[in-house]
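Lab notebook page, bench 4
Experiment: in silico fold of construct C2
Operator: M.H.
Input chain length: 229 residues
Purpose: comparison with the prior construct
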Amino acid sequence: MTGSLASLFLATLAFLAIHIIPSSFLRTKMVGRMGEGGYMAFFNLLSLAIFVWLIFAYKYAPVTENLWDSGNTGRYIGLLLMVCASVLFVGVFTGPNPTASGAEKLIDKEFAYTGINSITRHPLMWAITLWAVAHILNNGDLTSIFFFGGLGILALLGTFLIDSKKRRQISDWERFAARTSNIPFLAIIQGRATVSLKSLWWRVLLGLVLFVVLFGFHAMVIGVSPAPL
């Protein structure tokens, strides 16, 4: 089921659909029949299978003509977006977040409002979104648009779907939402959150290290250098 744009398009739609289910009424029905553990095992296996299909569909999709060429301007913008994405990605693993699966009880902890969470309560989703935008900007062919666009749309929609699900699951959600924001820096700009350099500087440093590693190995692993020409 690979080797064509149609296959890539179907794989992208399937990947979007399987990740929208957990935020819909279907999840409740499936958990009722399979149990929470059975549902999670089924969901994770199905997600992995479709993701593998998506990767192979992208890899073997035909090369199409570029709809745009952003040149060096796009490469510089892409690098800036990837720096931001790297910092946000590091934040996922260096601080507790009540929006993560099974971490709802952390909403009562003050440290849940610090670090990257003060910038956005969905650092992983925004890291993926920025990563997708950076790659679409510099890859204007339909194959890349389907692949990166699908993942980017899913991540962006995910921020709203997760908010909706957590609002139903967590009684103190409104208090957490009032001191954080989905859109990066919005709560800070509005005065609802404060940034502590003490809790952020080393996360930013780790993010920059991650960016350098990704940049340095991009040509070796992917086969294309992201450096401006």
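Observations: Residues 64-222 form one domain. Residues 160 and 182 are 8 Å apart (CA to CA).
Next step: discuss at group meeting.
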